[in-house]
Automatic annotation (TrEMBL):
Pfam family, one: AHSA1
Species: Kibdelosporangium banguiense
Chain ranges of the Activator of Hsp90 ATPase homologue 1/2-like C-terminal domain: 15-130
Superkingdom as given in the UniProt entry: Bacteria
Protein known as: Uncharacterized protein YndB with AHSA1/START domain
Protein family per UniProt: Belongs to the AHA1 family.
Length: 244
């Protein structure tokens, strides 16, 4: 067995190779579809919400074609790496390949599955960005709550607090208490995942049983949003949800 345990994803995007390269090789580009990223010295720091940040560095760099990032790993272990490969296709589309290597510990299969589902969602974000909001800048909001409650229990509570349990493709009007309503269409749906596309961006709600957390990632394109106040409001909403 390959002890590096490689996870691979591939997606064809309605964008040029240069547009895709910018989306996977710069902090601004990564923020468009993943989580907010910032350059801190020689490292790139990702904000996963709730005070959870992770710093990584560039291991390999082939401009316009390939970049490899190294993420933190247990002491003495090779780093977990995330490789992006960009390949243009005839007709103006681009194939993006992602390879993540290095899963450790007794729960590596669950970790592998969790990362796989996460990357499917984030790559869907990138495809939908190019389809609906190409070229627009983003303001990203991430909030994460941690809990020892079972994932199914937390997810059921979240759905109840949002005010709807919609199906894929359904038009929705969500009413989270104390926050502005969310109007849009369900563009992602799974057992513990709900994604809404609105007029100006995306809302993603997730429960992660492996890491005992529940989170929301939100993307607002081409509009003015107070990231700090919105993050605080959603963090408070999630904290209240997991404390009950």
């Amino acid at each position: 067995m390959d002890e590096r345990r490689r996870l691979a994803k591939e997606i064809e995007l309605a964008a040029t190779p240069d547009q895709v390269w910018q989306a996977i090789s710069t902090p601004q580009g990564m923020s468009i579809w993943f989580v907010p990223h910032e350059l801190t010295g020689e490292q790139i720091e990702a904000d996963f919400g709730g005070g959870n940040t992770q710093a990584g560095q560039v291991l390999e760099w082939e401009p316009g074609k390939r970049v490899v990032y190294a993420a933190p790993s247990p002491d003495g272990e090779p780093p977990m790496t995330i490789e992006f490969l960009v390949e243009g296709r005839q007709g103006g589309t681009t194939v993006l390949r992602l390879v993540q290597s290095g899963f450790f510990g007794d729960d590596w299969e669950a970790e592998y599955d969790g990362f796989g589902k996460g990357w499917t969602m984030f790559l869907h974000n990138l495809a939908e960005y190019f389809r609906h909001f190409p070229g627009l800048p983003v303001t990203g909001v991430v909030a994460t709550g941690f809990t020892e409650l079972p994932g199914e229990t937390v997810w059921a509570t979240m759905i109840a607090r949002l005010g709807a349990d919609p199906a894929l493709g359904e038009q929705v009007h969500l009413t989270p208490e104390g926050l502005e309503p969310i109007d849009g269409v369900v563009d992602l749906r799974d057992k513990s995942l709900l994604g809404i596309r609105t007029e100006h961006g995306f809302y993603r709600f997730m429960a992660d049983d492996l890491h005992h957390m529940v989170s929301t990632t939100q993307y607002f394109y081409g509009v003015t949003v107070d990231r700090e106040s919105r993050t605080a409001a959603w963090q408070s909403w999630l904290n209240h949800l997991v404390e009950e």
